[in-house]
Amino acid sequence: MLTSPGTVFTELPLPPESAKMIDAARRSVFDILRGRSDRLLMIAGPCSIHDPDAALRYAGRLKALGDEVRDRFMVIMRVYFEKPRTTLGWKGLIYDPDLNGEYNIEKGIVMARRLLLKIAELGLPAATEMLDPVISAYLEDTITWAAIGARTTEAPTHRQLASGLPMAVGFKNSTDGDFQTAIDAVATARSPHSFIGTMENGHTGIFRTKGNPYCHVVLRGGNSGPNYDAVRVSDLKERLRKANLPERIVIDCSHANSGKDPRKQHIVLRDVIRQCRDGEKAIAGVMMESWFREGCQKLQAGVTPSPELSITDPCIGWEETEQLIRETAEKLRSADRECPHPS
Q1: Terminus-to-terminus CA distance in the chain, angstroms?
Q2: Of 95, 166, 221, 241, which is the most buried if we count CB atoms within 10 A?
Q3: Percentage with pLDDT > 70 across the chain
Q4: Which of 152, 175, 154, 146 is nearest to 78 (CA)?
Q5: Partners of 218 in the beta sheet?
Q6: Is the pTM of this model over 0.85?
Q7: Which of the 8 DSSP states describes residue 140?
């Protein structure tokens, strides 16, 4: 039997200082999505977490970099513990924390929460994908921004879950690249719902939500190719307008937008920042898959993987991450100098 969320909260509580930081970070995200802040979200981190110690080292670096560019970006770390699979493969740290197929899920939940608490203690906001609604009950108090993946955006369960989450939620477009599923998901999650979920005591209960006004679309490309360009952004804006939804978009520089080739993420990011410099106000943020070293490695039985190389999708390395974030922040600053905001 799995330990209840309430018991895990008692054993690994969220300190008041960290709770205040997360609340403030969520409100900053809300301001960006409302258009009340001219900063962009910058969600960066590995495709998946497989070594918590390495993740904490990365978080320290990202926190320092985020402080450096905080005038232009609100930096949030990707801390993804669950990996959706089209067929088979490693399902993430929560499900298989020992990377050996033993699926010690309770250990994985504790490891994930402990890491999120340490990242919060650094003062760095965290983002994750909400894949299993039960797992979300153990982690949601530590999360600033959440994603619903391309494979689950259509699911009523995940739309209902998002409607009651206390943070902004991005719905990715479907794997074929079409926007409509994500648009429908945003509209659904902004409405009230009643559904069955997991309570703190571990029992099931009825949840009644008011709807989440901070849901938005995340463009990640699709089988037909990338969808981050100005033409596709304009098309999505028009469809959001027709659906009476806010024209706010986050763009994923990885996945199908880069063909899962980390060497192409910079092309996506620079194009998106160019759109912002040219006056595109619908873009609220970007996401990059970044880790210590460029590329990825395959899990092999009996072989301990490098902690600094992704074991799922390939990432850009840390040096390129620093360069791109600093470079694009300066491009945004220079655009401000060229076209200063009215006083």
Answers
A1: 60
A2: 221
A3: 97
A4: 146
A5: 172, 250
A6: yes
A7: G
